[in-house]
Amino acid sequence: MSDDDTDHDYTLAELLENGFGFRWGETDGTTWLRNDDGDYKRVHPVFFDRLHDLADGSTHPDECDERVQHTITSLYDNGYLKPGGDVIRHETPADIRLAPRLGLLAVSVAVLLLCLVVRWPELQSLPADIEFGFELSIVVLPVLLGSIAIHELGHYVPSRRYFDPNLRLGTLNKVIPAIITRTTDAWQCPRNVRIWISLAGPFADIVVAAGFAVMFVAMPAQPIFGFLALLIAARAVFVLNPLIEGDGYWVLVDALGWHNLRSRGFRDLKRGSVSGPAAYALLSVVFTAGFVALNLVILATVFDLV
User: Fold this and answer.
1) CB 3.0 to 4.6 Å from 115: which of 200, 213, 284, 286, for a disulfide?
2) The model scores a pTM over 0.85
3) pLDDT per residue over 153-199, tens digit each?
């Protein structure tokens, strides 16, 4: 294909007449298309059959009704269809067993909770035992940053077996700053694989928190270990909260099959429709606003602004 062909802005008639290709796959009964930007589009099986027949010439373009033509135009405009390209199927990888992995997660949580229970009296006195100030931040900040790196590594390692993830700066719920491992290509994988990729980050958090908790049991005279165990455990609970568009949300979506829950919820909320997704969206907005307000109050208190 020449450079001129590459830059050519095809009309619908030319696209249908000259043929096109696309990359597609089927995961857990869902048929999807993927563009070069790594975005995915679910398509109805009946429409996909028509699309495939048009791509290989089995169906004549004149047989397309207006709705099919409109959808094909939208897919082409968003990069899902390649003029003159091949139809490439992505082979879905084998699924995994979640039970052993969830068992390890449960054991880690049990170790963490047991250690916290053993040192519960010491934990209650932590605010009095620890001097909050610059010296504490010198210790806590590097550990916290390191735990964030380990959390993202938890997502990265299982993802690498199936696709090439990458790290980026982003926001949760379009407000809360975060370092995010981009795992959009997990949609190529079976449901259990997707769930485990989402859980692997919090699992890493729990393991780190349990390690600090064990150290606190062994050295109760060092309250910093108890503080770090609680801090990192709180981070794990936060990211597992399904009301933010993070790990817990994606686990919920995959476990229950509620695809596009957030987009459907905010769409229904804007329209004033009463629905389960709309209720979820409303709770998400309330949580996000409350979280931001709480952090503003904490910052104001720390800097003696109130």
Assistant:
1) 213
2) no
3) 999 999 999 998 887 777 766 666 777 888 889 989 999 999 999 99
